[in-house]
Amino acid sequence: MKWIGALLVILTCFFTGMDYSRRLAQRPKALRLWKNALLILEAEMVYSHATVQNACENIAKQIGDPLSGFFLSVSKRLQYEKTDLYLIWEEEVDQFWTRAALSKEDKEIIKQFGKTLGQHDIIQQKKYIQLAIVHLENKHKESIEMNQRYGKVSGSLGLLSGVFIALLLL
């Protein structure tokens, strides 16, 4: 019975380390998707003079999953609900973050951007979009560095810590 428990501890720690490694590898891709989405949003709002609802709908058609679902949901809620844009944005960001491989700092950047969305004229809106893109670019570089530094090690570290805990328990 002890051996089964030890094996379960080892496997749990190993899969926890592998999950952390997977999230580190997915974060740069997710940040790049967000950056691309904001660039499309900028083009839609600044050059096409599209409303936020139409811009979100167009982004959903052009960007890949899971981000397309986020923008499609924002677009549909803007169409049918008469609530404040930021409240819809904030609720959708919170719901999206349960499925995303992003950090709390990334979430805060997106939420802060949502506060400015649709609140200013086109020139100011373009500046806020560019500011959010710069912040996301910095986080993207940081996430690539973290993935290179800790990505491959975390699976092995999970396995070794599981073996260590199992040895302590036996």
From TrEMBL:
InterPro entries: Spore_III_AB. It comes from the Bacteria. It holds the Pfam family Spore_III_AB. NCBIfam families: spore_III_AB (TIGR02833). This is Stage III sporulation protein AB. It comes from Gracilibacillus ureilyticus.
